[in-house]
């Protein structure tokens, strides 16, 4: 079954076309990585998938339904979860309270219904020791984990990760990778934008390359990274 399908999706800001006829499918349970130079349109693509931006052309289908004009809250309720490149917690709330907010609003459930699930997410993401700490007191790694935990608290079918490994040490990155692998092993479909390539390729089954809003290639990560066009455009190597 196809979890997400984009067909000829385009988005422009004035005369600048930031997403140019993007088409690809993501099967249920797959992990897809997205790479590309800065300004390639990666975050814009995420915003189109979540509904934070509406496309100018093309269609987006999620879990069998056309969501091209569906607002972001509806997409979240239907199972699209996301982390942000720059963590955006409610800093004065505790870590656990941050998850409760995400779960109650992202699932339209009562606090009593989601409390147990939120505790489980804290365990899975390694945040249980920080459950009662203000989110504003967390380290960068802990904030990244909280971004992941808040997305997971909405019980997503599709999890979008935006540069979640950026800025972490090698040891921190390795720990986070294992958490993402565990989530993927549970059957969650993942799309992951990342510049830390060793982290990305250790998880994803397919890799998509964007450049100036266009899909340059999609396929096996090893084959994609060895292609001439990717080396020239993404790695800056004159082949």
Provide a descriptive summary of the structure in words.
- Strand 4 (57-62) and strand 5 (65-66) form a beta hairpin.
- The strands form 2 sheets. A 6-stranded mixed beta sheet has the order 6-7-8-3-9-10, with helices on both faces. Strands 2-1-4-5 form a 4-stranded antiparallel beta sheet, with helices on one face.
- It has helices spanning 42-50, 72-78, 95-107, 111-124, 140-153, 170-185, 197-201, 221-226, 228-233, and strands at 2-13, 16-27, 31-35, 57-62, 65-66, 80-82, 158-162, 189-193, 206-211, 214-219.
- The chain has 2 domains: 1-79 and 156-239, P-loop containing nucleotide triphosphate hydrolases (Rossmann fold, 3-Layer(aba) Sandwich), CATH 3.40.50; 88-155, no CATH class.
- The chain is of the alpha/beta class and 239 residues long.
- 41% of the residues are buried.
- The protein has 9 helices and 10 strands.
**Mean pLDDT value:** 94
Please give the radius of gyration in angstroms. Answer: 18 Å
Named CATH architecture of the largest domain? 3-Layer(aba) Sandwich
Main β-sheet: number of strands, strand sense, barrel status?
A: 6 strands, mixed
Shape: globular
- CATH topology type of the largest domain: Rossmann fold
pLDDT < 50 stretches: none
User: Strand pairing plus helix content: what structural class?
Assistant: alpha/beta
Distance from first to last alpha carbon = 38 Å
| CATH class label of the largest domain | Alpha Beta
Order of helices and strands: EEEHEEHEHHHEHEHEEHH
**Annotation field: number of helices:** 9
Strand order of the largest sheet: 6-7-8-3-9-10
Number of domains: 2
Total strands: 10
Helix content: 25-40%
Share in β-strands: 25-35%
CATH-assigned homologous superfamily of the largest domain: P-loop containing nucleotide triphosphate hydrolases
